[in-house]
DNA sequence: TTAGTATAGGTAATCGATTGCCTATAAATA
DNA sequence: TATTTATAGGCAATCGATTACCTATACTAA
């Protein structure tokens, strides 16, 4: 169906080799005349080289994969944008795989990306250690974004922020603001561990006790915030809420406003991530900003530098920022 | 680097053909013994068939492309999710290309997807007619999502809602709610035309005049809403705002709340799209809901049915829903 | 006994682009 | 004039999987 290199060669009366050389800029020994003729034919026929055939031969596809847990959580598209922008600049395409936070889908995504022979993979939210080792053995460069992975396994890169410290400061901010009963609402994934320990540490260092009934964990979405705070308020009073991400905070704000509870006067709220419209919430959300776009961009840069120039993959820590706005 | 079919064949002492047949289920004339042996070797070696080699030979890649204008607008990830879910069910992968609403990037995305030999493409936000024709000539099945494309060109599918009617009803709702001075804030893309005419029609049918100084168009994002309403309020008073999408509405709400203007008492606001957390805004946003997930799912279904069973691509109109919440 | 057929699996061409190596001419140098 | 060398471009193997077609054996039916 599509035009092939062979056809271009036949029409212009040269060999496939010549066409290939022209396309790939190995045209040192190609006359200007043939070059023009071939290039003209290519645009005229709308010829686009078959990336599969090329990939098969040169074993480089100029594609990188990005595995994310939930594309409807705006934090991840922001990372994706960072990745895409960087990738596009280097002539790489990005294949995005959504896993819905299911380990099985994560595994399938890897299989799929391997099959597609992507040159590298960026992924967020780690599998359990066991599965990860298997994946890292594949030899394909991998950069993990969004959390520190504790594994001896080397040979993969990391872009992360200290989420434990982030949540710790978030909690401290609430403590300093005078909150007495501070709830914690978040998700329950593997990646949650760091966050929760930040909360626990902050509480303990302030001499507070962590009360199980003030903790609710489900998923990183709005519903969790909404359900969580309602559940907690059934049996408890709170005057501060540490949220595992901004979506949860939105749910909390919604539930509180339905109950006529004033924010931040009666209850103070800290989010996490800083989705780009969190600042536009009413009241604007106080949160810990993860530099999502930057994380994506740096991950892509590290990965592509490794693919193209064998620069080693590294561990790179980016800083979070505290954004105090209207909810604390 | 990666294990190949040839290696599997050598290890198990059969031919490549046999391995291939087993993988693809053409194992009618394969003994249970060999089948087990080969399958065992495959899992043990972690063999994943090279999708490029297969794609090159069978001219089917089981990949579809999705071109979207702005991945950080939550409306599109929602569509993407609908596409992905459907696609995954049928064993298709999805390549997402973000264009930042730049026509050039849109064109490049098509080129890229052609090169990748995707089996079909779903895209939102149309190029100008001229460029589209070129693309449709490629022979690859295409489904356009999100707006009606007026072109004689056949052979591509459409999933759309009547955005003109949607905005018209949105405007009428404001008129019925007693608004006298109704502003319109939206984007200025090609795809905007329908929306704006909905506003104009509603105004005219109600005997109102469209005042240019109450109209602001820039982009479908929060900033546009924020800037737009502030600009308008410099010289005018308004008591109703029709927004081109929910992000714009969020920006408007923010700006108004900064000015201490009460919503909906002093100004009423209608959004458009219904992003999944719009209902959680404070006050919850009244909006016209586009069934984003459903649009994605149906687009993918139509496309895959065409790819797999040559079912013709059709024009399909989905219905919007009016969601009256707290801003009108 | 022999032709026919079901079973099991192998051979080799093919998909489209790349690339090391070869040929042929022209120009430069000895 | 003879020999390099630069220029221009072609040949054919190759990447990994698929598949039409072929071979060989075992079993059936006539």
Description:
- The structure is a homodimer of 328-residue chains.
- The first copy, chain A, is an alpha/beta fold.
- Chain A folds into 3 domains: 5-49, Orthogonal Bundle (434 Repressor (Amino-terminal Domain)), CATH 1.10.260.40; 60-161 and 292-320, Rossmann fold; 163-289, 3-Layer(aba) Sandwich (Rossmann fold), CATH 3.40.50.2300.
- Chain A contains 12 helices and 12 strands.
- In chain A, the strands form 2 sheets. A 6-stranded parallel β-sheet of chain A has the order 2-1-3-4-5-11. A 6-stranded mixed β-sheet of chain A has the order 7-6-8-9-10-12, sandwiched between helices.
- In chain A, helix 1 (5-12) crosses helix 3 and helix 5 (75-89) runs parallel beside helix 12 (292-309).
- The interface between A and B is large, with 55 and 55 residues.
- Chain A binds a DNA duplex (30 and 30 nucleotides) through helix 2 and helix 4.
Total DSSP E strands of chain A: 12
Low-pLDDT runs of chain A: none
Strand content of chain A: 15-25%
Question: Superfamily at the CATH H level of the largest domain in chain A?
Answer: Response regulator
- Report the helical percentage of chain A: 40-55%
What is CATH's topology name of the largest domain in chain A?
A: Rossmann fold
Structural class category of chain A: alpha/beta
Dominant shape of chain A: elongated
